[in-house]
Write a structure and sequence with these properties.
The protein has 6 helices and 10 strands, in the order E-E-H-E-H-E-H-E-H-E-E-H-E-H-E-E. With 216 residues, it is an alpha+beta fold. A 5-stranded mixed beta sheet has the order 5-4-3-6-7, with helices on one face. Strands 8-10-9 form a 3-stranded antiparallel beta sheet, with no helix packed on it. A two-stranded antiparallel sheet has the order 1-2.
Length: 216
């Protein structure tokens, strides 16, 4: 049995660069990014019901994400003409504006580069991938959804918030963390630091290795 033809992507490695045609013209990803966070996402096909609900939600969230310094970039194995017609149809029927570019990936170049084609699901359509790429073009998180389940957009925004909070404050975010919740202070790595941690009254201490604090 042949192996799928797609790249192995690793967290905290460089996100692959590429050139592509989009609904907003040709772009080179590394130049288009412009020191922004990027959510690169794929959808199986234009003019399909689950994908349409997702594009409506991306459109509703694009301003919120822009305020966090995040740009959106879509991709599917459809032509630019199909993308344009679908975007116009969405805007007509759902009252939203698609302000982000969508890659016309007919040759599957980007889809294969980012491992969006999972052959047990389909050889001609991408699964629902979400890639979180930081301003240094480092791949920070990945989420995959099957073709018959739409994405959770609250979780997509939460991941952005968690990554940016962790970077800014040198902390980690616990399970189910949301903005305003306490964060985890990195565990000490020496015996002396563990003793000092145990005596720190400013922390919510469960044990020497698990401590939380408020950022407010």
């Amino acid at each position: 049995m042949s192996q799928p033809d797609f790249a192995r992507l690793e967290l905290n490695a460089a996100a692959p660069d590429f050139e592509a045609s989009t609904t907003q013209g040709k772009l080179r990803f590394s130049e288009w990014q412009k020191d922004r966070w990027v959510i690169l996402f794929s959808h199986p096909a234009d003019f399909t019901p689950v994908c349409t609900t997702e594009f409506v939600e991306f459109a509703k969230r694009q301003d919120e994400l822009a305020q966090k310094g995040v740009a959106l970039l879509g991709n599917s194995v459809d032509s630019v003409y199909s993308h344009i017609a679908w975007i116009r149809n969405i805007e007509q029927h759902h009252g939203v504006t698609i302000g982000f570019p969508v890659i016309a990936d007919l040759d599957q170049k980007v889809a294969r580069l980012y491992g969006m084609i999972h052959e047990p699901s389909s050889v001609t359509a991408a699964v629902r991938c979400v890639f979180f790429i930081d301003p240094k073009r480092t791949l920070r998180a990945m989420i995959y959804y099957p073709m018959n389940v739409g994405r959770n957009f609250d979780e997509i925004v939460r991941v952005v918030d968690a990554l940016q909070t962790a970077d800014k404050n040198g902390v980690a975010c616990p399970a189910n963390w949301r903005p305003g919740d306490k964060v985890i202070v990195p565990a000490p790595v020496t015996v002396e630091a563990a003793k000092a941690r145990a005596a720190d009254a400013t922390l919510e201490l469960t044990d020497w290795y698990l401590a939380k604090k408020s950022l407010s």
